[in-house]
Specification:
GO biological process, one term: nucleotide-excision repair
EC number: 5.6.2.3
Structural class: alpha/beta
Shape: globular
Helix content: 40-55%
Radius of gyration: 23 Å
Number of strands: 7
Distance between the termini: 12 Å
Keywords: 4Fe-4S, ATP-binding, DNA damage, DNA repair, Helicase, Hydrolase, Iron, Iron-sulfur, Isomerase, Metal-binding, Nucleotide-binding, Nucleus
Largest sheet: 5 strands, parallel
Strand content: 5-15%
Main location: nucleus
Order of helices and strands: EHHEHEHEHHEHHHEHHHE
Number of helices: 12
GO molecular function, one term: ATP binding
Length: 291
């Protein structure tokens, strides 16, 4: 998926332990290295200071705006984390969200277990949801929060890829918990190839609309700039330079942003173990993908 025109991708799973285990596995196989050849990869930290998290987010935004040789950014995060519930990623800040599994709370967690028991015991007298229903609602609330990161207004667009066989094998139970606007657009794919083809077509279609819109805006801006210069043709050159200076690129900011992205990439390289050089092929078979 990361090789398509979907330049900004969010990848959600749960919990943090799974994220760390998956990252460790991908570092060992070389897949993580291959991802970093294409995208600037940002991983949501567990805990830590808010300033550290804000710095990582700034690297993500800089990687999108000044991507250089790479094709955008990949943000790896967890459901119920800071990224999935507290932030907006509208427009080009997120064009695809991938979720792995359904983020049910840990059934062995004592608080979860006691809450389910309490609801079961008092559901009739106090009008509480049965324990099982409460448990499922917690999972879908977190899932829907993550899916909604890339659709923030009526003209926004993005691909939602839900990787879990339960959506295909038992749709009447598992799809019903998704938000209505997601349920209405569901497509099932039993192979990676069919999902990839559909996603490529979807991205290409919407990217054309974006490109046309940008060309129209540029034409309007150029027309306004020409009009402004024409009206000021009798003014001094100094005044003309002052009026048109906002049109010049902000090179210092751009250089600072590129430096932040480069520093983040170099820091990860020094911390990563030696990796195999071979390119890891994608998994074949019928891994179901839904989006």
């Amino acid at each position: 998926f990361v090789h398509l025109d979907t330049k900004q991708v969010h990848f959600f799973l749960s919990p943090f332990q799974l994220l760390e285990k998956l990252k460790e596995r991908w570092l060992h196989t070389g897949l993580w290295h291959n991802l970093e050849l294409v995208k600037t990869v940002i991983v949501e930290p567990q805990g830590g200071e808010k300033t550290d998290f804000d710095e990582l987010l700034q690297v993500y935004y800089d990687a999108i705006k000044y991507k250089g040789e790479k094709d955008g950014a990949l943000l790896v995060a967890v459901c119920r984390g800071k990224v999935s519930e507290g932030l907006d990623f509208s427009d080009d800040n997120a064009r695809a969200v991938i979720t792995i599994g359904i983020p049910f709370p840990n059934v062995k967690d004592l608080q979860v277990e006691l809450k389910r028991q309490y609801n079961d015991q008092h559901s009739k007298l106090r009008g509480l949801l049965p324990g099982r229903q409460w448990y499922e609602i917690q999972a879908y609330r977190a899932l829907n929060q993550a899916l909604g990161r890339c659709i923030r207004h009526k003209n926004d667009w993005g691909a939602l890829i839900l990787v879990d066989d339960r959506f295909r094998s038992n749709p009447s139970r598992y799809i019903s918990g998704l938000s209505k606007w997601v349920r209405q657009q569901i497509q099932h794919h039993s192979t990676f190839e069919s999902a990839l083809e559909s996603l490529a077509e979807f991205s290409k279609k919407h990217q054309k609309v974006i490109d046309v819109s940008r060309e129209d805006r540029k034409f309007i801006q150029d027309s306004e700039s020409t009009l402004e210069v024409t009206c000021l043709k009798d003014s001094s050159l100094t005044y003309l330079s002052e009026v048109t200076s906002p049109l010049a690129p902000e090179n210092p900011r751009k250089d600072e942003a590129k430096a932040r992205v480069h520093e983040h990439q170099c820091h990860k390289i020094t911390k990563s173990p030696s990796l195999p050089r071979g390119i890891i092929s994608r998994k074949e078979g019928d891994d179901p993908v839904l989006f």
